[in-house]
Design brief:
two-stranded antiparallel sheet; 8-stranded parallel beta barrel; alpha/beta; about 40% helix; binds 6-hydroxymethylpterin-diphosphate
């Protein structure tokens, strides 16, 4: 991919990269997500939430049926399917113009979600399950490969790196190679440093500063810092819903460092901030 004509191909969607920052709006259909758990736990509420985020300017809606917050327990396949499928189907009807992504570690959920209309699989385990890569390849959809150290249950128990940016970059390079080996074109791949997934505050900050290093991998780069704990620590806000200002600070700086997409909870506010940030960083006035 050359700068100026970079594209992330996801099914029938082709996301132009670099012209402006793309926003992935978070729709958690879970009782226990760290920032909005239980708020949109019914399919109806989650579809309504997704529709609102689409109207607020989300380029993509990320539907998740399993919390991967630190210390969380996995959910069963049946339960995860029960949570996400009606929401994907509902949003395809309610907002057909807004593509949908599924946030899952299970290839069975990915396969069913693609059938229901999802064009991206957002896999926080970086495609470690070969069957996940096959489902993505066969579905012709896009994939987000994220870095996570260990498992959600234990990942925040004293995470250690020698050089976090190099290690995360090398891991993501290896995951890109595994996906390409399985037959997924690079244009379909997006990488994500996994802010908060087995990282302390310093690791998260280093990774945000290290986005240029991730850009050298040659694929789309997504950053998800929204409302995360390091923002609470730095800004003194215990309640995740009180972390808007810190989240926007992280968002605009991720953009300045070269992020192509941001995964956020507060779409309206972030989109407004990005109009300004993009004009400064990428040039032009909208
Ligand atoms: N963060 C969360 C979940 N999925 N996916 C990607 N690609 N990048 C991220 O940073 C990321 C992610 C955690 O946030 P949230 O979905 O709000 O919480 P929970 O896992 O508790 O549902």
């Amino acid at each position: 991919m050359t700068d100026g004509a970079r594209t992330w191909i996801c099914g029938d969607e082709a996301f132009a990269l670099g012209e402006r920052t793309l926003v992935m709006g978070v729709v958690n259909v879970t009782p226990d997500s760290f920032s909005d758990g239980g708020m949109f736990a019914t399919a109806e509420d989650a579809v309504q939430r997704g529709a609102t985020l689409a109207d607020e300017g989300a380029d993509l809606l990320d539907i998740g049926g399993e919390s991967t917050r630190p210390g969380s327990d996995p959910v069963s396949l049946d339960e995860e399917l029960r949570r996400v499928l009606p929401v994907i189907e509902g949003l395809r009807k309610a907002r057909p113009g807004t593509p949908v992504s599924v946030d899952t570690r299970k290839h069975e959920v990915a396969r069913a979600s693609i059938r229901a209309g999802a064009v991206v699989v957002n896999d926080v385990t970086g495609g470690r399950d070969p069957a996940m890569l096959e489902v993505v390849r066969d579905g012709g959809v896009g994939i987000v490969l994220m870095h996570m150290l260990g498992e959600p249950k234990t990942m925040q128990d004293d995470p250690r790196y020698h050089d976090v940016v190099t290690e995360v970059r090398d891991y993501l390079r290896e995951r890109i190679e595994a996906a390409v080996f399985k037959g997924i074109a690079e244009e379909r791949i997006c990488v994500d440093p996994g802010i908060g997934f087995g990282k302390n505050v310093e690791h998260n900050l280093a990774l945000l500063r290290g986005v240029p290093e991730l850009r050298t991998l040659g694929v789309a780069v997504l950053v998800g810092a929204s409302r995360k704990r390091f923002i609470g620590t730095l800004s003194g806000t215990e309640d995740p819903a009180e972390r808007l200002e810190g989240s926007i600070a992280a968002a605009v700086l991720a953009v300045a460092y070269g992020a192509d997409l941001l995964r956020v909870h507060d779409v309206k506010e972030t989109v407004r901030a990005l109009r300004v940030a993009d004009a400064i960083v990428r040039g032009g006035a909208g």
